[in-house]
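Example (one chain per record):
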Amino acid sequence: MTPEELQEILDLGEDQELEFKSATGGFPKSSWETVSAFANTEGGTIFLGVVEQSLGFTIEGVRNPHSILKTFWDNHNNPQKLSHPVCRETDVSILTLSGKILVSIHIPRVVRQQRPVYINGNPLKGTFKRNYEGDYRCIEAEVKLMLRDAGDNALDGQILEGFTLDDLDSESLTAYRNRFVSRSPEHPFLAQDNREFLESLGGWRRDRSSELKGVTLAGLLMFGKERSLLDALPNYHLDYQEQLSNDPDVRWTYRLTLDGKWAPNLFNFYYRIYPRLVEDIEVPFALDETATRKEETHVHDALREALVNTLVHADHQTTRAITIIKRVDQFVFVNPGRLRIPRDQLYRGGMSDARNPNLLKMFQMLGLSEKAGSGFPKVLRAWREQSWLMPLVSEDLVLEGTMVGLPLVSMISEDVKQELKAVVGCSYSSLDELGRLILLLARGFNKIRNADIQPYCQQHPRDIGDRLKQFVGSGWLQKEGHGRGTQYRWPTLEEREYSSEHTSGSSEHTSGSSEHTSGSSEHTSGSSEHTSGSSEHTSGSSEHLRHSLQADLLQVAAPVRETKKISKTLVESTILKLCEQKWLTLRELAELLKRKPDTLRNHYITPMLKDERLQARMPNNPTHPRQAYRRGKTKNKT
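Predicted structure:
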């Protein structure tokens, strides 16, 4: 990494994969927790000699970088300190920034077979992971999950002692065989009895070394009865929801879960919900190679692939449920268990690491899943063909889960254009490709991070960060969190309505502000409280106000507006009257009352907010650029 690249990272300040530490006393001991956390999560880089503070970064430098690195390597290669080495020599470097020497240590994400990476010889107390707040110690369940996922044996190949063919739902197995014969009527598996048939699929197995034999976890998951499934997996849970109502009090319009009315195995779950997932998808007229009408599209293929992937890549031994949600504007697929390959590799395709290969085989035998590594590119193809917002895959690093969002939002539809225009106004036509992409992603997924945008474009993360900050300043996005936890949110309807009320036409007035400036001198000779020339107070807003404020507001403000010296009580009562029926910004109040914004904020607005005579439109974000005020519920004290 070059000093220039580091400076860009410091300027951006939003990355959970970076850690900055002071090294004035040598190699910091807390860095080993970060080494473990980075290795077990997404990887990252530790910078020694830089201190992260609330308002930015301080570059302290290190005095003896070679001594620090010797300490690092001595402990890195000591199994009593670190369970196994994770870095190569090329992962460590010494660089100079602003005349100070820094040490950079890159910690790669380890493959699942190496997890957990732990410190001090104790996996239960020395295993760490990374979230947006920093490093945290894993609980025992998380450690066991990593240990279980590290093995090369198929998780679903486990033989379940005490379980027999009687624990399988005969109707489910018969239905599977019927579908199998329809697809491959000459297949030799069809001549086998049920036990042999299950053995061929991986649903029954004999361990040659121990002579243990019986139903496998895959067999039970695919064909099991409800009671048998819960006996083997007490936390087993499937949840399909249709959230198709606009009423916020209606949580779902249809739901399928474990209720004792059906055998809730994966085979039945698939065939009960897949038709519901695709029932609203339009099928254009098209013929296949035999001149028969095609009854499915690539979107059908994509939803089938997403559903099967969710079922076969889940870690069914956790406490988390498999959850499938159908919304008006999006499909959501959630499974317990993190990705077993890097996310960028998933998007590229060509690689697969199935958590439950026997389950995958069972679905593939029915033609319901593609060959290894080609499934997700099919999803991307279908969404690209429809010009829909591209699917987003994300991992819950704390709960060890994976979420796939498939938005039904067109990147080019007139409805989307109109919604974007409602937020950005006349600036829509001047948005470039990156700007529109950011707004589309925020609209489609509600909350996004800088890292979520990067797979969709070629721009540098710093350029993306600059654009995000610009959109926050314009009121087009809402910022939440700070530092590595920063997210950008699509504005709520209330925020959008407020923005459209107060920003329309602002750009046209800003450019012509100089022609209005000369008139301000006649007002500046009075009290320090009495001016129209504040730095916060642009002539653009003045012009807009003259065209938009009702005459009665000007009349209410007249006693204060036309008097230089006046009592505090009268100013407060006038503010309350002005804010009786309408949200007003600080600038608008300053214009109406001809007072400095700083004076109004410090001497009137802030005290009146504290005693609830006023209420803020964005109470959780006092410095929001579109903040406004209205009369509160507390009676006027004046």
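Caption: Residues 503-549 have pLDDT under 50 and may be disordered.
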